[in-house]
Amino acid sequence: MVLWKSLHGLQGDGILSRKPEVELWFEFGSVYSYLAVMRIEKEAEKAGVDIAWKPFLLGPVFQAMGIKDNPMASQKQKREYTLRDVARQCAKYGLKWVEPTVFPRLGLLPLRIALLGAREPWIGSYCRAVMELNYGTSEDINDPQRLSKLMDSIGLPAAQLLEKSREEETKTRLRQQTEAAHAKGIFGAPTLIVGSELFWGNDRLEDALEFAAGRSAN
User: Fold this and answer.
1) How many other C-beta atoms can be found within 10 angstroms of the C-beta atom of residue 96?
2) Is residue 77 assigned to a domain?
3) Closest CA to 184 of 197, 174, 171, 175
4) What phi, psi does 8 have (nearest 5°)?
5) Looking at the domain assignment, is residue 153 inside a domain?
6) pLDDT tens series, the chain, 218 aa
7) What CATH code is carried by the domain that includes residue 146?
8) What string of DSSP letters covers 63-75?
9) Helix (H, G, I), strand (E, B) or coil at 193
10) Which of 136, 108, 124, 111 has its CA nearest to residue 31?
11) Domain range holding 213?
């Protein structure tokens, strides 16, 4: 008998127990999502918490909020501060950092593939590889050939995933997931959700995991 992934053991009376879960809503074009994606699996393992990976598009969420332009593209001071701040954070966490030549960079194609793999065991390694391509070497993550090489390098069926990413069903699913993000009150990335509680930003990652673990214990 095959059990779903979130089940992890038996309690005293033989009843299956669930690990607590945190939803990670992220965007490859979001530089603070880079920090969260690169750290979350190790931190979640230490906390005893499962991750539900939730790729979505920030642009339509901004538009639904009445924001016409991405603040990182339209606000010079905020963009410059953010890039410097993330450089400091990468030094703190020991992450690669090359200031992107295009910022924010479009990541529609890798998001569709992340959606396809959201429940697969390779989702974490794939997302980290895409983020490092964007922020560790400043390469075009939306280029099919470059993305294909990346997937080949981590043992994924690149041709199959690229073909699937172009299907209307996949495109529709990403639109629906983005609409779901807006409906949940998400206004930026990364956002972590535990039940009905929202935690915004990489600096709230540990708080979200602690809340999830404590909520489960209680």
Assistant:
1) 12
2) yes
3) 197
4) -140, 10
5) yes
6) 222 233 333 333 334 447 899 999 999 999 999 999 999 999 999 999 999 999 999 988 998 988 877 777 778 898 999 999 999 999 999 999 999 999 999 999 999 999 999 999 999 999 999 999 999 999 999 999 999 999 999 999 999 999 999 999 999 999 999 999 999 999 999 999 999 999 999 999 999 999 999 975 55
7) 3.40.30.10
8) HHTT--S-HHHH-
9) strand
10) 136
11) 19-217
Give the pTM.
0.89
Token pair recorded at residue 210: 């602690």
> Which amino acid is residue 34, in one-letter code?
Y
Alpha carbon of 46 to those of 4, 18, 113, 160: distances in Å?
21, 16, 27, 34
**Strand pairing class (7-10; 21-26):** unpaired
- Structure tokens belonging to residue 137: 């070497």
Q: Specify if 8 maps to a domain.
A: no
Q: Bridge partners of 18? A: 7
In a domain, residue 5? The reply is no
Q: What angle do CA 200, 203, 205 make, to 5 degrees?
A: 70
Instruction: Tell me how many domains the chain contains.
Output: 1
Contact 70, 43 (CB under 8 A): no
Backbone φ, ψ for residue 168 (5° rounding): -60, -35
